[in-house]
Amino acid sequence: MEMGLKRDLRRAADTICEADRVTIVSHIDADGISTESILAQALSREGIPVSSVFVRQLEPMAMRHIPKDDSLKLFTDLGAGQQNLLEEHGLSADEVLILDHHVSQPCGTAYPQVNCLDYGVTRMSAAGVAYLVAKTIDPTSTDLAKLAVVGNVGDMMARENCGLVGPAREIVQDGVEYGNIIVRERDLNCYGISTRPVHVCLGYCDDPYIDGISNSTNAALQFLERLGVELKNPQGGWLVWEELTFDDRRKIVSALAQQLIAHGREIDRLLGETYIFPDETERTPLRNASEYATLLNACGRWAKPKVGGSICRGERGDAYREAEYMLAHHRSVIRDLLQYILDTGVTELSHLQYIHTGDRFPDTIVGIGAGMALSKLDWRKPIMVLAAMVDEPEVTKVSMRTNQWALARGVDLQEALVEASAGVGGAGGGHRIAAGAFIPRNTEEEFVDSVNRILKRQSAPAGQDDS
Ligand SMILES: [Mn+2]
Predict the structure, then answer these.
(1) pTM reported for the whole predicted model
(2) DHHA1 domain spans which residues (predicted)?
């Protein structure tokens, strides 16, 4: 590991261990929830009193949830980009510690921070940083690596390379050695390997897009039946991918590869690493990292991050049942949103496509819908979804998504939204591939045009005048 990162981790561990009590302020997504759980458990084991606050994002309205007391405020999966807000809130450098993986925006106060981006680690999330801090506090806490893998996968850190890489991959190894993670290398790169019948799993798979299979569970079933693999258990129930024999999995994968090649598509995204948790019940969403992350995201989306936190701490009773219910609800609302976007259609500009969903869907889920819709629309153009916020009628929430293809051509949504929102008196942030903003409602048109102009500038070849 990079020496500077190691030094920052040691410093963070010392700061935490010297604290009389700690308040964790974390984000409500899978990464933020698993991060909070890793740290809360690590601190409890050291006998340090800890309480937690979850926020949708660190913005002025959210600051009132942060207690004015003498506890160490541990900002996790957020904070790096909002240091001026901490300063405005009157927090001093010695009562704050930031553990984050988002782009840092320093301010007058030098807040201590561990940020993997500072060391060129772009494929690790806050849960990875939190785990490394926990392991620095107590090297035997490798049982928590599993939650770090959930957070990393939940934050799409395994997407680009079809598996975790760098320090995030080293964390996987800790879990393998502890015994609560099994790595399947070159496994099917498809969501739902532990809970969905195989044809459903394949029918919903769109990365890679498999002609004649993606978007049709019926066609997927016929495809599988032709291969003569065993799809049902002796009781007549559908097997899930994880339960298929090695030979049947291999037979299906090679047939899928042939199908991709026959349609002139790349096969490089067909296989990926999957992370299975042998200590969890089979055929549940807790059984692998990506489904576990989705379960936690569902808790966050319905504003119940602490339910997710209980699950991360091992609760398998009421909290688990409640999360399962939210997961089912979550999927159906996202399906409705996706269908709404496809039915209504987007407005196309030269360098982006957008749609306004009004107040039909919770603003917290429009980003997910945007990402899903992109693969079914013109995937070359980034998609923007604008949504009204029920509790703040003067504000519009903006979510944007793009893909690796556009990133390779210079697109940077984070930059575009930060710049365009600043121009209309709003605020934006995120990542190159997925970003969001809050803007005054009466600036929507101007904002959309401005983002389009910035995207045009970004995709122009260097040196060429794009005027
Ligand atoms: Mn994160």
Answers:
(1) 0.78
(2) 366-456
Q: How far is the CA of 349 from the centre of ligand 1 (A)?
A: 30
| 445 Cα: distance to centroid of ligand 1 (angstroms) | 30
Q: How far is the CA of 30 from the centre of ligand 1 (A)?
A: 8
For the chain, what is the HEC assignment?
CCHHHHHHHHHHHHHHHHCCCEEEEEECCHHHHHHHHHHHHHHHHCCCCEEEEEECCCCHHHHHHCCCCCCEEEEECCCHHHHHHHHHCCCCHHHEEEEECCCCCCCCCCCCEEEHHHHCCCCCCHHHHHHHHHHHHCCCCHHHHHHHHHHHHHCCCCCCCCCCCCHHHHHHHHHHHHCCCEEEEEEECCCCCCCCEHHHHHHCCECCECCCCCCCHHHHHHHHHHHCCCCECCCCCECEHHHCCHHHHHHHHHHHHHHHHHCCCCCCCCEEEEEECCCCCCCCCCCEHHHHHHHHHHHHHCCCHHHHHHHHCCCCCHHHHHHHHHHHHHHHHHHHHHHHHHHHCCEECCCCEEEECCCCCCCCCHHHHHHHHHCCCCCCCCEEEEEECCCCCCEEEEEEECCHHHHCCCCCHHHHHHHHHHHCCCEEEECCCEEEEEEEHHHHHHHHHHHHHHHHHHHCCCCCCCC
Residue 61: which pLDDT band, with cuts at 50, 70 and 90?
A: low
Question: Is the model more confident about 34 or about 60?
Answer: 34
| Chain mean pLDDT for the chain | 93
Distance 28 CA to ligand 1 centre (A): 9
Distance between Cα 247 and ligand 1 center (Å): 37
For the stretch 315-352, pLDDT in tens is: 999 999 999 988 988 778 888 999 999 999 999 999 99
CA of residue 311 to ligand 1 center, whole Å: 19
Cα 26 to ligand 1 centre (Å): 10
What average pLDDT score do residues 148-162 get? 96
- How much distance in Å is there from the Cα of 165 to the middle of ligand 1? 16
CA of 128 to the centre of ligand 1 (A): 9
Q: Say what percent of the chain tops pLDDT 70.
A: 98
Domains and CATH numbers, the chain: 3-140 (3.90.1640.30), 185-335 (no CATH), 345-459 (3.10.310.40)
